[in-house]
Request: fold
Amino acid sequence: LPPPDRNNQILEDYPKLLDDLRAIKGIESIPIILVKANICQLLEPKLDEDGFNVANLGQSLYFPACGRQGEFQTQLKAILARNRISL
Reply:
C-alpha cells in the first residue's frame, strides 16, 4: 500500500489493537515501545491518550529490517535507559 493508505489502514485498525492490548492483564503498567516512524507518529499520541505507557516519549525508532540495525540498537538503548528498563 502507498504510505497514505498504510497510515489510514493503521488508524482504521486502531480499535482492534486497543481490544488486543486491553485483553492483556496489567498492560497499563507495561512499557510499550513502538517501532517504525509512522507507527510512532500515528499511535503514540492515541495510546498515550488511552492510558497506555508508551516508552518512546516522542522518539521514533528506525525499522531494523531496512539496513539500519546499528542505529536501531542505539535508539532502543536510549529509550530503555530513559525509562529505566533492563532486559
Q: What stands out?
A: Strands lie at 31-32, 53-54. The chain has four helices and two strands. The longest strand covers residues 31-32.
